[in-house]
Design brief:
4-stranded mixed β-sheet, 110 residues, 3 helices
Amino acid sequence: MGSSGINAEYMGSSGINAEYMGSSGINAEYMGSSGINAEYFAEPDVRGKPVLIYANKQDLPMALKPGQIVDKMGLHAVKDNKWFIQSCCATTGAGLYEGLDWLHNQIRGE
């Protein structure tokens, strides 16, 4: 992921562009002001692509829960993308493979 841990992009040799994001340890004000919201999904490089969002740091009591992330990012308004929020803990690996499995299945069209 990028140095901020918020947004990264992968372009496979097949030209499939899969977006993924992670870190729910950031505060709600930052998430709302960072440009990571429903408008992000309207960008030409992102529109129509599957988006995996990792709700990381779920081992910490102050981490945003997936439902809070949906609300803060305005994901209910996203209609052109399939998106999925996976709770995870990067330090233990919990939830990481489940998110990648979802993304893999979306790219394969399953």
